[in-house]
């Protein structure tokens, strides 16, 4: 029976074509090193969640399948590791987010640790499909554009022209947590309560508030890294709101590896 919605069929064709194209890229990888660097061969065809990333592009391209396909290829270059068979990409991002929380929000980190929530499973969907299911359609597009605009320049960059972060979506996730930090700490004492709380807010998050908070966090993080390097890795932890007491110094540069820092800056 023919699908009554032709757009669903076209979207399926785009995703199927991408799977074939990606498999061909894996076969033609010139070396094992190239395959490792590009993630070739680590995808297992279509994976649930890819359609969440493709459908907004299809709408913005006004149903043009060719334009949508190549836009999707570009987006998957940024998000392909989310769909690796071994889930290594998602594990890496969740670990990085956990470390960001420990650096930028020690009180929140302590609360998540106390409530057995440091696995951050309630953030898994946020990162997997770049908040597509958390925000309304228009706000999802605004958030995606902010993440792309925050990326460092890839070519021709000079000092002073770098973006906010290569992984601004992680700062958006941190911003979401920080915006709800006081409520989490005061009222939610178990992992299932935190999971249920964030699920209940789906579609009600404010993209502008998240973007603005993420921008502040990304800039603060960059300043902390710069200061820590100048101090040989020592820095003062950021003060929590409502607390005037200085935090103890931390050996900050040992929390994140050089590769992790490059991923975040």
Automatic annotation (TrEMBL):
Record-level Gene Ontology MF annotations: GTPase activator activity
One of its Pfam families is: RabGAP-TBC
Q: Where is this region: Disordered?
A: 228-250
Gene3D superfamilies to which the protein is assigned, alphabetical: putative rabgap domain of human tbc1 domain family member 14 like domains, Ypt/Rab-GAP domain of gyp1p, domain 3
**Which InterPro entries does the UniProt entry name for this protein?**
Rab-GAP-TBC_dom, Rab-GAP_TBC_sf
Q: Where is the composition biased (Basic and acidic residues)?
A: 233-250
User: What is this protein's name?
Assistant: Rab-GAP TBC domain-containing protein
Q: Which organism is it from?
A: Sporisorium graminicola
């Amino acid at each position: 029976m023919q699908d009554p919605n032709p757009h669903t069929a076209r979207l399926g064709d785009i995703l199927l074509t991408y799977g074939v194209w990606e498999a061909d890229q894996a076969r033609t990888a010139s070396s094992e090193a190239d395959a490792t660097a590009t993630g070739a061969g680590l995808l297992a065809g279509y994976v649930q969640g890819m359609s969440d990333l493709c459908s907004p592009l299809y709408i913005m391209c006004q149903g043009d399948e060719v334009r949508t396909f190549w836009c999707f290829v570009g987006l998957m270059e940024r998000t392909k590791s989310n769909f690796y068979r071994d889930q290594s990409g998602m594990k890496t991002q969740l670990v990085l987010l956990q470390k960001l929380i420990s650096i930028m929000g020690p009180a929140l980190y302590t609360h998540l640790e106390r409530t057995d929530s440091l696995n951050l499973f309630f953030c898994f969907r946020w990162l997997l499909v770049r908040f597509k299911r958390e925000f309304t359609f228009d706000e999802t597009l605004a958030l995606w554009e902010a993440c792309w605009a925050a990326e460092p320049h890839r070519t021709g960059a000079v000092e002073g022209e770098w973006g906010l972060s290569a992984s601004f979506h992680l700062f958006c996730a941190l911003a979401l947590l920080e915006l709800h930090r006081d409520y989490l700490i005061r009222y939610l004492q178990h992992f299932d309560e935190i999971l249920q709380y964030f699920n209940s807010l789906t579609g009600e998050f404010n993209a502008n508030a998240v973007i603005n908070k993420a921008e502040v966090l990304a800039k603060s993080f960059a300043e902390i890294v710069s200061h820590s390097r100048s101090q040989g890795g020592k820095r003062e932890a950021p003060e929590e709101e409502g607390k005037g007491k200085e935090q103890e110094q931390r050996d900050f540069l040992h929390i994140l590896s050089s590769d992790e820092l490059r991923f975040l800056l």
